[in-house]
Batch of 3 targets.
Target 1
Amino acid sequence: MNNLSKVALAVCAVLATTAQVRATEQATKTLEPIIVTATRDKKPLEKQSRQVAVVKRDALDSRQVDSVVEALKYESNIENIGGSRPGAQDPVIRGLSGDRVLQVIDGVRQNTRSGHRGTYFVDPELVEQVDVVKGPSSSLWGSGALGGVVSTRTRTASDMLRADQDLGGYIKQGYHTADDKALTSGAVYGRSDDKQRDWLLNGYYNDSNDIRLGNGEDLQHSAARQQGAMGKFGWRPDEAQQIALSLRHSESNQAAPSNPSANVSSSVPLVQQQTKDFNTTLDYQFTPDNPLIDSRVTAYYNKTNFDEYRIAKAQQDEVNFQTIGLNANNRAELALGSLLTGADVYFDKTDGTREGANRPVPADGRSQVWGAFAQYELPLATDWTLTPGLRFDQFHTEDKQQIGSARTHEHWSPSVGLAWSASRWLTLGARYDEAFRAPTSEELYTSGTHFCMGPTLCNTFQPNPDLKPETAKNKELSARLAFENVLTADRLAVNATWFDNDVDDFIEQQVVNDFKNMIFKTSYNNVSKAQLRGYELGAEYAWQSLTLNLGYGQTRGSNKTTGEALAGIPADKWVLGVNQGLWADQLMLGARVARYGSQERVPASNDVASYDGYTLVDLALRWQPKQHGWQNWNVNLAVDNLTDRYYLPAFNQLYAPGRNGKLSVAYPFCLQEHRPR
């Protein structure tokens, strides 16, 4: 790293510190509502009709996670199917992953996806909160939300500054033992005396070696280097208006297999890859003293570049993705209920080159999409609430290299939710949601070579312009119980959810290597009808500084045509967690025990007949002193996989990391308290 980068990082960092201190202090005094943004209506978590998992900043710090996907590992029916390499991780929500799970950052769709390339580029150090909507959500978000939505909110100056502060900053240093990973991050942030303007500059740099597994061996070609930065600038012209500009950039370098979720082989060559991701967002909010107007308009531009060098063949590839979009929505409080309306439009562009010439993998695709939605929250009686929703989307897709490839299709996505507050401590809910996923330009139009099995014998992509959209119909029942003063000054919450999701016209990549008839091709086809059923159970007990959590998730997936089990369904999972605060919560101790059941429900074509069950133990310690001169320091110590278990998660091709000790220290600088005018 050059001197300029070091200076930039030193100038950029007090994020985790002040936010965590504040969160801990608040938790001991009052329960602050957790505002969820993934449902587009800014309602508190306890008032959501959809099932939502939330991971906040203090949890990200204490766990010291390496990715947004890793931050979700304790959540029921959410797993990582991409393996351990940076950039390859992919969440599975209730058995669905990839293009069937929509990623959103600061209200903006992240549409980058092609082949085995990564899609989650934001560093956890830049993240304030992660919301996960479980289950189909197309009535709000349109295409791609069959399995759910992973919505990430990045940090702002308001998240970092206390009420009495105008200026702050931090520097943070961390180290992970499993891959000798060194992490550096920092930020400076501030606001004007009148609080009309605020700003934040944040940066990070990570460097790691190969990951050590539970058997003592290294995962070859898993070393990586990552760096990035984020700038945010806000202005409030008056009490009713807020304007925010956000710039985010990340860059990673690694030598990894072309499919980073697998090992190097004859069909999976080693690739030297540099990934650059750049995002610009301009956000405007208008909230006058009028119950009919709570509006937000967001314009954005995303660009991702993959620069790849295939070492064995000395080939230089380049793949580019661009998205330009605009979101607008408004929440109106009516005499009877509330109405959420909105519209989205975005334009996607993909192209690739090999040695400077057009490369048909991925297709030279263009997509134009617009959609509009409405959701009405209607109180039927004192204890009943009905929430119908409807969205319309139109898609136009074409490959600029294929004459006559243009196609347009439309889709309606309805939803309805019903909630009954049966008593002061019991809430029952029922939902029905339809969702869809339009075929990508890669699935429709990709041609060219997929992989070669020798000097002349190659498998090629066959375009399929007749692909139909995937559709889903989800039924869901839920119960939420909440008790106060069960024993003495304590709280108990219990949640239970059952779901049944039918997905039709599943799009799958089919590879044919028929040596007898000399047919070697790969194509995307609508091949099956899938049924995904399961349930989630959760309980939380809190007394003083003690918190106990228990969660269970189960998903069963089958091909409705053949009755065969579906690939990619995570194993059943139990998670028991305990957190204890000591010395006025200056010291927080945490432990998690996760039991993963064996997974024997696999399709006959799967390379592995079954996956063994295993138990993982994670520990965490967070020290936040409150003594004068030390009150903003933050020390986190964690150990993942304490027993150094050597294990293979279900439907993963790579074994997971072994014992990983993690230490981070964050300390503030140039803190300035607000001076009364």
Note: Residues 15-29 form the longest helix (15 residues).
Target 2
Amino acid sequence: MSETHLPGNREDRDRSVSAVAAPPDRHRNLVQWTARLVAVLAVSLSLFQLYTAGITALTALVQRSIHLGAILSLTFLLKAPFKGARKDKLTVWVLMDWILVLASVTCTFYICYNLTDIFERQGDWLQSDLAISIIGTLLVLEACRRVIGLVMTGICLAAILYAHFGPYMPELIIHKGYSIERIATTLWLTTEGIFGLPIGVAATFVFVFVLFGAFLESTGGGNFFIELAYSITGRFSGGPAKTAVVASGFMGSVSGSAVGNVVATGSFTIPMMKKVGYRPHVAGAIEAAASTGGQLMPPIMGAGAFLMAEFTETSYLTIVKVALVPAIMYYVTVLLFVHYEAKKYGLEGQPRENLPRAMKVIREGLHFIIPVLILIYVLRANYSPMMAGFVAVLSTVAASLAANSIRWATSGRRYPSDDPDRLSLAQFGLRELKQTLGALEKGARNAVMVSVACGAAGIIVGMVTLTGMGLKFSSLVLDLSFGIEALAILLIGAASLVLGMGLPVTASYIVLATLAGPALLDMGVPLLVTHMIVFWYSQDANVTPPVSLASFAGAGIAGANPMRTAFTSWKLAKGLYIIPLIMAYRPLLGMGENYELLHWEVAFAMVTTTLGLVAFASALERYFIRRATWLETGLFTLGAAGLFWPQAWGDLLGGLAFMTAIALQKFRKNVFSESARK
């Protein structure tokens, strides 16, 4: 769910207080007290979010302001203002950070304390309202600069300047312009700006699921999913690579972070892939492409999925339902590329005796599966995603405590009561408490980036709404695409690539949905399909050069060239570009207003699209059951194009071309086999 900081880009800037080198004695107290404050603030925020998710809900503006106040405070305590600034020494920059923390608390508390008055004097603002609004907006911009970078900060500033200097803009985007007072108060004192829908989703649904992922990881759920994937796929050709794909699917379904997935699973799978013969850049690329799919895989698909449910006024369960089949298709595509790579280079799997047994892994890690099943059940029972996340967190804590208690109780059989390795009841309880508090702190830390991104995105959305820029941009897309739906979708894909160079995927989705989404709606694309297309394309920054965040993270672990890794991951993740385009023409998401999946047209679309993806991967890799000739490659290409084409004659032509290519492959294989026997 959380969007991890950019590896190799802002690591120095993102150093936490606890991660700095051991400070001199005279400054140690400063570091310790700051670390304690961070821990208390993070744990308190997590407990507050759980309380409001499952016990008592608060007014939207109050909930969002408290959440943002805590997030801004954590940002200024954890993130250095610039590269090289020290947090382990009392400097003017440390003092400035404490002033910013105080300002963050003041500006957000101002909303809570004056909530009724703010509602009553809408438009008739006091000087204090204006001052607080300006300071609060500047605080969000500074947090955005520290956490995300200058690009998104620049876009936010450009949106504000555009709102103010509207009369001086070119004819295409001109508008009447708005005063500083109108802009600042809209952004800070209403739910149309910073405290709009993006931060609203981050402060409710997203946070509890980030917390859920943190508890799973802290209790060993990450290792369980990796072991399970390894036990299933390890014996096949290119076993470790297929393990990476499956494990990233498992992890992504509960974490929703591509870069976080790479770091979590890649530290295990990438060395395994290199050990069996995968080239370093290929190993890093496979992990990056697989981890990107994690943000597309239900039941937890990243912050964008919760935003999509709100934007489309659709239940989250419906989002999960329609997203499942395309996500599986994406992973099928990645697995095909991995399989062909393994076959071409003779990379075999591991012997069965060297692999963990799946049933043993499931038996030992059953308590990690139970919370996920409970989560799905609660969603199916039509409870809100907030309540589902709340129940999932509590069930994770309960399941982990029960499993650990059983292990502790049975450890007496191995250890005598006087054995120093045998934990006392008090020691056991203290260990579990520390683990729980650690997960609460980690969840809040992990939520910092996505919440800051959503707050900053609120500036963009607020200014787009205020100025009517969305309609202007939509008209521009319509004009450039000449009313051709496929061309409009490709233009949106290109725009997402440009935005992805500076924006995290959640922010990219929000901007694209606000600006470009209306163009597809005007062309007759259904609302949910439109948002699903935009959501898919917003993920491409993870694997698409020149800015390929997940690829760069994979390259760092693999010790490979970052750009070479990025281009390889781009090839492996081609389903990310093809499947959204097909969504617009075939009912991959379901039929009718309720998006029913049990329909023959849906089944037919799934079959033809899957076969098309197989043909496409075979053409690109020039391999099916053996290396393909140029004639076979051409037939695979024709087969893919025909099967993707949304008409019956295309399916027929594509199917014939695909089967002909397979027949030629089998014929050549039999001929060579016969020659070898002779």
Note: Residues 1-23 have pLDDT under 50 and may be disordered.
Target 3
Amino acid sequence: MHYFFKQHEENFKEWRNSGYQGIPDVGVDFLKHLGSRNFKPDLKIVKFWNEKQWKKVQLEAIERCIYSFEVLGEKDLLTNIVTGGGKTTIIGAMIAYMMIIHDQYKFLILTPNTIVRERLDDEFDPNSPTYIYNVFPFFFNSFESLKTRIQLHKMQPTAAAEGIRSGTIILGNIHQIYEKRDNWKVLRDNVDSLCIFNDEAHNTKAEQYNDLIGKLKPKRFFRLDTTATPDRLDGLHPDSKMIFVYSIAEALADKIIKRPIVFHPDIKKVKLTYEDLETGKTISAEEVPWEEIEKRRMPARRYITSLKPMRQQIAIACELLKEQKMRTPEPYKPLLFLVTFSIEDAKNIARELEKIGEKYGIKKILLVHNETEEELKEAARDLNKDPQTEYDAVVSVLMLREGWDVRNISVVLLFRKFCYKEVDGQIFSVYGPQVIGRGLRRMSKDPEKWESLFIVDHPILKHSWLWDHLKATQYPDELDPANVIIDEQKIPKEKEAEKIDEGEVKLDEAEKKLEIQNLPPTPEPPKVAEPIYEWQKFLDEFEYDFNRMNIVEDIDKIKSLNIDSDLTTLEKGNIPDIEVEKIAAITKTENWPIDELKKQLVKQIHSIAKYSLLEYDRNPDERQVILVKIIREHIKKRLLNGSDVEDSTDEILLRRLWAIIDQIRDVFMRPELIEGIFTRK
């Protein structure tokens, strides 16, 4: 989907740094209130509050919505935010803004299914203990009384359509407008101005959804679409304008979601096959018409998972659940989530799980599909309300997808393939990211603590595209179902998980031609520590700690290294005669040839530039090109004896550079340094 806001980034930053000029005065007060240190939720009500998430994701999205509406005159907007990023909070803030500044009192929140609707019901019902306006003080000063005027009307089979007249927030599924024509009639005849919010907005291109959005367009005062997956398998996407993206990679780096870690069964011992109920034949996963099934041109009920591979993979998943029990923070109980192919498949898998899971302490299994009794569907919807749930595992077809967010899902077992479409290098898919997204919400209140989501995925399903998209880590060993051994040392440690390889940014000729002395002025940024205006001098004199190179003492000649002196720049005369192989072992790059090492160093340089700007003002824009050049010049001058990374032939210096690359990152992550570079004194 096209990123509309790219052309407006610079003007937006200038607007924000100027104090939100050009919008109503009350709107300025609203944004300053949200950005103040005093703005925080009621911590007695809210279970999770991450200040970094609020400032970097939610507040940023709110500011962009207001700028797009007030300054650019755009009424149909979209935010693309990862699951768990806080989309509901953004909706709540924009409702408050439209009430306070524009006297709007009709808000239609459309959802694709009952699960999403009931989740939002908990947030927008004034009688709910988690009512969003009791949690977040979006209404402030004299406007606090406005929240008492809010009435929630839920479009349900038993609810009279007349409730739309009196309701402030109207919450319902698209089906409740099409199947209950009275709802549409009241909307059509009695509502003149309407703010529309589409949660899980990738569904808006469905025929009925799209038709309704078109009919409501003359009445809409403002529209905000929210989704984590705007691009569908059919290549269609919402017709709103994408103004904000917060990706999986960013959320992982910020520890806002769990780390997905993928485990593969031994493909030689676990041969994943399915039974074709129509022909009675056993077929491989590659013979199943997955794409036709996902597009619903062929019924999934025709196929079920073969018994042997089913049992083998259940055993692996149960072992992983046992491992997760030692990692799950209090008071949560870890859950196993099994994603199946069809209703019959789900029933078979639930029966086998009951048998196999007994020795793992799995006593109660929740089976959910379209034919499930309403009581069990409700139990699935309520799972997140009790961290010590009575259930140990959930077996589902695709029903539990959008809007079903259960924090204590710890292990996901996939019995089906998800499809994708690639156009010009862009991946289009919905089901895969949506299903895995159910388990990405964190449990821990500690924003610095890593959490992991374990996923069992058979290699024959060919989901590498999905794991690339989700920035998932893959466990290096294949697992033997008869003897599942998890080597703790091979599960990525926290420090490793923080390093997200963004790949090398393609530089244009501007980098080569750009003179560092001619830096463009930038608008006034947020207040930071005293800017380092003499940044070049600071970089030239900065003392790197070469003791932090993880050098082991049992290596010959190590004591001859001049690492305890004041040496801060490696000069040829100061480099002892030490074998390249030993330096490679010291820096843990022994498996990399020199060309690979150079490639990795270049990637790190670009990553440092990007995340330095993200830390500074949340916008890695064209300044990244300038910063890359500065970092390159610094490394060339201080650490590579006047050579560029690509041109250096000194293998020892290159491997030593890798050893202190994290120190270089720390230097450039200082906001005061970045401000000094990009702001004239």
Note: The longest helix spans residues 594-617.
